[in-house]
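INFO  loader      accepted 1 record
INFO  loader      residues=138
INFO  predictor   begin
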Amino acid sequence: MTAYKLAERFINVKEIAGAASNPLVLAMLRLDDAWPEGDDVPWCSAFVNFITWMLRLPRSKSLAARSWLEVGHPITIEQSEPKNDIVILERGTMAGHVGFYAGRDLRVVHILGGNQQDRVNVSVFSVERIIGVRRLKA
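INFO  predictor   done
INFO  writer      dumping tokens
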């Protein structure tokens, strides 16, 4: 079982609008930090940590997307393999986004990740936002 194949099983897991929270998303968040009281916080890193934790792969143990820049082996997007690597994207100067590399078309990268339109799905991002690609080894 690869991390990507396991992550695919969670496609369409989503936040619950309003005061309620999805217990699965909360479990992902609280795996690495006790403070989140709801699922309305950034949880992309929590999703990647949750998947890698289940497979006993290296993980960041942080809710910060950029924490993944310190995990695994750095590679370029040209060296990356769809469904095998993790991509870290910039979002402003301090924040970021992280998910599993699903593929690439010209100037966009496809990412399987959490907290993409408040759910787990495959979304498209500009390749210009890539700040790191990591390969995990058990």
